[in-house]
């Protein structure tokens, strides 16, 4: 049975992020990102080169883990964890991506440090079912 456009977009984002963050195959990642890729991010330089340069500056221990993912029409939102980033704590992020014709063309994100159980006022982990060890 053929996938819906939303399901195709979800799969496309997951493949793109795995290729970029976990495999770090930049040439292959280029096919997922428009040459005119727009990033609405205060902490990353513009375009796909800004994203590639950010990742190149993160230690090779970087691990990307997707969590919840939702899609509607041309938009996909992924809740995720970035560990092994060379910081004392992991990053938890929600990436919002706009896709056109199978290409990521625009991106917004929100991120926070992953809280330990002791730091969490809600007593709930911010990613997954367990607090980081």
Nutshell version of this structure?
25% of the residues lie in helices and 36% in strands. By secondary structure, the protein is α+β, with helices and mostly antiparallel strands.
Description:
The chain is α+β, with helices and mostly antiparallel strands and 133 residues long. It contains three helices and five strands; from the N terminus they run H-H-E-H-E-E-E-E. The protein has helices at residues 5-22, 26-30, 47-56; strands at residues 33-40, 63-72, 75-83, 91-100, 103-113.
List the helices and strands and how they pair.
Elements (H helix, E strand, L loop, with lengths): L4 H18 L3 H5 L2 E8 L6 H10 L6 E10 L2 E9 L7 E10 L2 E11 L20
Parallel strand pairs: 1-5
Antiparallel strand pairs: 2-3, 3-4, 4-5
- Beta strand count: 5
Q: What's the SSE pattern?
A: HHEHEEEE
Principal-axis shape:
globular
Number of helices: 3
Low-confidence stretches: none
* Cα separation of the termini: 41 Å
Q: Percent of residues in beta strands?
A: 35-45%
Mean pLDDT: 94
> What summary fits the major beta sheet?
5 strands, mixed
Order of strands across the main sheet: 1-5-4-3-2
Task: Tell me roughly what share of residues is in helical segments.
Answer: 10-25%
Radius of gyration: 15 Å
Structural class determined from secondary elements? alpha+beta
């Amino acid at each position: 049975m053929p996938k819906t456009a939303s399901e195709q977009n979800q799969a496309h984002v997951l493949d793109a992020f795995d290729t970029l963050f976990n495999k770090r195959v930049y040439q292959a990642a280029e096919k997922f990102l428009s040459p005119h890729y727009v990033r609405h991010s205060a902490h990353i330089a513009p375009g796909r080169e800004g994203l590639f340069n950010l990742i190149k500056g993160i230690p090779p221990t970087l691990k990307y883990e997707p969590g919840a993912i939702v899609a509607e029409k041309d938009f996909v939102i992924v809740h995720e964890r970035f560990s092994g980033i060379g910081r004392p704590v992991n990053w938890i992020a929600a990436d919002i991506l706009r896709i056109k014709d199978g290409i990521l063309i625009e991106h917004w994100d929100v991120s926070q440090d992953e809280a330990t159980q002791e730091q969490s006022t809600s007593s709930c982990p911010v990613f997954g079912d367990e607090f980081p060890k």
